[in-house]
Structures are given as structure tokens and as C-alpha cells.
Design a protein that fits this description.
Elements: H1 3-26, E1 31-33, E2 44-48, E3 52-57, E4 62-66, H2 75-101, H3 112-147, E5 158-160, H4 162-189
Antiparallel strand pairs: 1-2, 1-5, 2-3, 3-4
């Protein structure tokens, strides 16, 4: 696989991971009600997210309420908000940087500067993956600790929601895509060309007196 193909593949994975981060940030399913009493039918299900809490009735009706105060939130909720928003903005910056330094674009002249720009984009995507991993693992640790804590009543115990799994998948895509972008940059720097370069030979025609024009030899 050429460096350009690795670069395009890595950028595609990073974009999908970045969209996954945005989706996980907005979903209210970071933690959900735990069914541990053996009841098949329950009256309502509780979803808790970074921005709102939702209650889903057994009839299918859903009611959501935004968090009233940011300062009243628990530390892991505040950190989750800050880091996911930061990754959303940082992913947009990484996308613009990578596109500017990509081999398939002509925003910057080919050379070491272009390689350094695309390398910076790959590093930014890897940083995004690490930053997303922090709140996701923090939430998972709190949920698992509370689930196995005998002092916590069963009605207050929670399970990991879909948003956490989306966050883990987005982290893997960002890390893998960022690594591919960085590898494509190193390969391109070693002299591997991502796109073929065509050279056209100049045609020299003789003049009226049978001699070649001297400007062809300059």
C-alpha cells in the first residue's frame, strides 16, 4: 500500500471516529438503569448523559430534562463535557491540518514542510483518541464500582450505556487512523511518492536552414 493510500485510509478512519465522538457526546446513554431484580417488565428506564437525563416509560413515552447547573455536576460529568467538546473542536482542526498537508492536495508545495504538516494532523488525531479515552474509562470505572458496591441500593445501580461503547470504538478509530497518517508521512519522507509524476519530453524541431534552434540547449 502506497503512502497516499495509507494517508487516505487513515483520514477516513479518523473522520468516522470524530463523528463517533460527536455522537457519543450528545447521546444521553452514558449510563442506564440496571436490571438486577429479575423483573422482565419494568415501569420505566432511566438514561443519564452528559447534558440531560431521560426517563423512558414502558408505554414508549420518553421525557428528558437538561442538567440545571454545570457547577452542581459531579467531577466526572464536568470532565466528560469538557473533554468531549475539546475533542470535537480539536478534531476539526486536525481535519483541516491533514487536508492541507495531504499528498492529494496542492495547498502546500511538496517537501519537508508538507510532510511535517500531515504529521501534525496525525498527532492531533492520536491526541483526540487519548482525550476521549479519559472520560469514557472514568465513567466505566464509576459505574462498575457502584454496581458491585453492596452499600448502593439496587434502584440506584447503573450499567454502561451505548455511548460508552461508541466512545471506545471512536477512540480505536482515532488512534488507528492517526497512526496510519503518521506512517504515511514517514514513508513519504523516505522518498516514496504517493502519486506518479509524469514527465513530458520536449520536442526539438530543426529550423529552415536544417539546424536546431539554440534555445533548446539552454
Amino acid at each position: 500500500m502506497t503512502s497516499a493510500a495509507r494517508e487516505i485510509l487513515g483520514l477516513g478512519l479518523c473522520i468516522v471516529g470524530w463523528v463517533g465522538v460527536i455522537l457519543a457526546c450528545g447521546l444521553p446513554t452514558w449510563q442506564v438503569s440496571a436490571y438486577i431484580d429479575g423483573h422482565i417488565v419494568v415501569a420505566q428506564t432511566t438514561w443519564e448523559g452528559l447534558w440531560m437525563n431521560c426517563v423512558v416509560q414502558s408505554t414508549g413515552q420518553m421525557q428528558c430534562k437538561l442538567h440545571d447547573s454545570i457547577l452542581a455536576l459531579e467531577p466526572h460529568m464536568q470532565a466528560g463535557r469538557a473533554l468531549t467538546v475539546l475533542v470535537t473542536l480539536l478534531g476539526l482542526v486536525a481535519l483541516m491540518v491533514t487536508v492541507v498537508g495531504a499528498q492529494c492536495t496542492t495547498c502546500v508545495r511538496a517537501g519537508k514542510a508538507k510532510s511535517w504538516i500531515v504529521l501534525a494532523g496525525g498527532v492531533l488525531y492520536i491526541l483526540c483518541g487519548v482525550l476521549v479515552l479519559i472520560p469514557v474509562c472514568w465513567f466505566a470505572n464509576i459505574i462498575i464500582s457502584g454496581f458491585y458496591n453492596p452499600k448502593v441500593p439496587n434502584s440506584m445501580k447503573r450499567e454502561m450505556g451505548a455511548a460508552l461503547y461508541i466512545g471506545w470504538a471512536a477512540t480505536a478509530l482515532l488512534l488507528l487512523g492517526g497512526g496510519l497518517i503518521c506512517c504515511s508521512c514517514s514513508c513519504a519522507g523516505d522518498g516514496e511518492s504517493g502519486f506518479p509524476v509524469k514527465y513530458s519530453a520536449s520536442t526539438r524541431r530543426p529550423t529552415s536552414n536544417g539546424e536546431y534552434d539554440k534555445k533548446n540547449y539552454v
